[in-house]
Amino acid sequence: MTAAQTKTAPYKVGDRVEHGSMGHGTVVKMVNLGGQVRFDMMGQVVSFAHMENLSPSDRPEPPQKKRKAANDDNSTVDLWARYAHPPLPSGLLPSVIEEYARVQAEMMGVDAGGLAAAALAVCAAAIPDSIQLKVKRHDDWMESPRIWVALIGSPSTKKSPLIANATAPLKKIDRELYRAYVEAKAEYDGLDKELKKSATAPKHVRLRLEDTTIEAAQEVLKDSPNGVLCLQDELSGWFGSMDKYSGNRGAAKDRAFWLQSFNGGNYTVNRIGRGAVWIDNLSVSMLGGIQPEPMRKVAGDAVDDGLLQRLFPIVLGNASIGKDEPTPPVVAKYAAVVDRLHGLGKPLSGMTEVPLKFDKGAQSLRNDLEAKHHAMAAGWEAVNKKLAAHIGKYDGLFARLCAIWHCIESTGSRPASEVKEDTARRVAAFLHDFLFPHAIAFYADVLGLSERHDALLATAGWILAHQPSSVTVRSVRRGDSVMRAMDNHEAQSVLERLDAFGWLEPAPSARRDSLQWNVRPAVHTLFASRATEEAERRRKVREVIADAGRLKQAA
C-alpha cells in the first residue's frame, strides 16, 4: 500500500513532496527506474515493511483497513524487517530548536532527532504549567506543555552526553533557584521569633527531579507548582522502582502517582503520623534514556496501565565521532530560549489573563485530527494494543506540542493568546512524520510488531518452511514448540494478524469449528531466501534433539 510518485527528477533526498489525496512525505531514498525517479512514501501503515525507505504521509490506516489485490507484493509485510530510525524532518520545528539540534548533533556526533526531542522536553519543563491550552471551543479540556520523552539506544548512541547537553540550560536555572532559596532561608532563619510569626518561610522552587522515589518527588513538587523535569539517565531504574514493593506500599500506588504527574492537577499525600501534604499541581515532564533490551523487559513485566504509552519513544540512530571545535553560537541561543520560557506569564486578553486557544483554522485542523487519531487507534487495536493505546494519547499530546511550539516562537514576556493554523499544521506534520514513525519503530522493532510476536514469527516461519496452501487453527497448533503452546484463541489471533499483514486471506472452510486461511502465493516468492534459512534452522533443531535422544539412550 505504498504510495508511489513517478516524475522526472528535480527532487532530491530530504525534499517534502505533495502527493494529492495521499498527503505529503519526505524523500529519503531515490530509485532509478528507466530514467525516471520513483518516490516512495508511506500511504498506509502496512508500508512499514519499507520503513527504511519511507517517510509517512498523513494517511493513517493500518494494514487491515485497506488491502490491494492479492497479487500485489507491496501489501505483504516482512515480519523480520528491522526499522531504521526515522530522520528529523526539515522546517517543522521552531527554528532555534532545529538549528540547535542539527548543529550541536554534528558537533557531538549524536542523533539530531534525539537531541531535538530532548530539547523539546526541556522547553516543556521550563514553560510554567499555569500556561494552558483550551483544546476545544466549548469544553473545559485544558492541556499544559508537559511531555515525556524516552531515548532508546545502545550505549554507543551517546544517550547520556546528549541528555546532559540538552538539559544544561535548565540545570543552570535550577542552580540559581537553589542559591536564591539558600539566601532567603538564611535571612528567614535570622529573624527573631516575633518577626518570624508574621513572615512566610521561603519555598524551595525546583525545575528538575532526579530521585525516582515518590516521597522525594512529593517534597519537591509541593513547592514547585509550575512543574519539574524528571531526569533519568536510565529509565529502567525509574520503571523498576515502581514495580518493587516498599514496606506496605504497592507498586500500583507508585504508578498511580506518576500517571497523575503526567496529567497534572491537585494531589494530596496522607502520611501516618506526619499529617497530609497538599500539592497544588502534580506536574512532571520526563526525559530519560534506556537500552532496547531493558525496555523489552520493562514492557513485558510492567502492568499495562498506559504508563509506557505516555512516552514519546525516540529510537536513536548510530553515533559518530564528534568535533573538537568551539561551542557554536546556537547553543547560547537555545539556552536563552529556555531562560525566557521559564519567565513566561500567562497570555492576556485586554488586562485579563486567559488560557491559550486555537484560531479558527487551527481548531478545524484539530477537529479533523481527532477523527483521524480515533481511526488510527481503532485500526491498530487488533494488531498491537500497546501502539493503539499510545495513539489514543495523540489528541492531548498534539495540544501539548502546539503549546510548546507557540511559546518557543513567542516574543516578550507573554505569548499571544491564539495558536495559529500554521503552528498547528507544523506540529501535526511533526507528530505524524517524525514521532509516529518512531513509535512504529519502537513498538515494532524494540517490542515486537504485534502481541505474541514470538508466536507470529514462529507461525510465519513454519508457513515458509512447510509451504502449505492453506492453514487453520488446528494445523498451526501442530507446529513447533512455540506454536503448540498456543491455545485456540491465541492461534486464531496470530492467523488474523498474518491476514492483516498480507500473508493470508480468509477462505471458506469445510469445518464450522475451524476457520481457514489461504496462504498468498506472493509470500513464498518474496521470502524464498527466508524459507531456505527457516528450513535449515528447523533441520538443525531436529538434529540437536535427535542427538540428545541418542546420548540419553547410550547412557
Q: Summarize this, please?
A:
The chain is of the alpha/beta class and 555 residues long. It contains 19 helices and 21 strands. Helix 1 crosses helix 2 (112-126) and helix 2 (112-126) runs parallel beside helix 9.
Walk me through the structure.
Helices cover 46% and strands 14% of the residues. It has helices at 95-108, 112-126, 159-189, 193-198, 214-221, 235-242, 251-263, 292-301, 329-342, 360-381, 385-391, 394-408, 421-446, 453-466, 473-476, 481-484, 488-500, 521-526, 528-554, and strands spanning 2-7, 16-18, 24-26, 31-33, 36-42, 133-134, 142-143, 148-152, 208-209, 228-232, 267-271, 275-279, 284-290, 311-315, 348-349, 352-353, 356-358, 418-419, 470-472, 504-507, 516-519. β20 (504-507) and β21 form a beta hairpin. α1 crosses α2 and α10 (360-381) packs antiparallel against α11. The radius of gyration is 27 Å and the shape is elongated. The model is unreliable at 1-9, 19-24 and 28-74 (pLDDT under 50).
Please give the radius of gyration in angstroms. Answer: 27 Å
The neighbouring-strand order within the major sheet is 9-10-13-8-14
The average pLDDT value, as a whole number, equals 80
**Got a strand count?**
21
Helix content: 40-55%
Tally the helices: what do you get?
A: 19
How far is it from the N-terminal to the C-terminal residue, by CA? Answer: 57 Å
Assembly context of the chains:
single chain
SSE class = alpha/beta
What ranges have pLDDT less than 50 throughout 5 or more consecutive residues? 1-9, 19-24, 28-74
What about the largest sheet?
Answer: 5 strands, parallel
Morphology call: elongated
Beta-strand residue fraction: 5-15%
